[in-house]
Amino acid sequence: MKYNTIPENPGPEWLSHLAHKFHYRNGGVYKTGEDINPIGSINEEGYITAVLRNSKLTPKYKNFKLHHIVWYLNYGEWPELEIDHIDQDRTNNYIDNLMLVTHQENMRKVNDPF
Fold this sequence. Notes:
Layout: H1 12-21, E1 22-25, E2 28-31, E3 41-42, E4 48-53, E5 61-65, H2 66-75, E6 82-85, E7 98-101, H3 103-111
Antiparallel strand pairs: 1-2, 3-4, 4-5, 6-7
């Protein structure tokens, strides 16, 4: 099983796109102006992910784990460490359930969750 790794910074163009086209609310990420259906679906690792489109960039499509977008939309910076889901529920992307950790800290929690 693969575990969360340090997310690659998507670059300033994608970050600007995320900031202008999406917003965070109650653990979900929504298109700007919409509050009904959060974006994303659960992948094979149990994380919520979303393939986003930006026609001005190459490549036009990029796959994101939602907790990385949540972190960015709340703190204004792309995470430089791994993000841990404190309650170990990979679909719980409420900002108060996310914290930055080193890879070693994250693996320790995986191996000894209590």
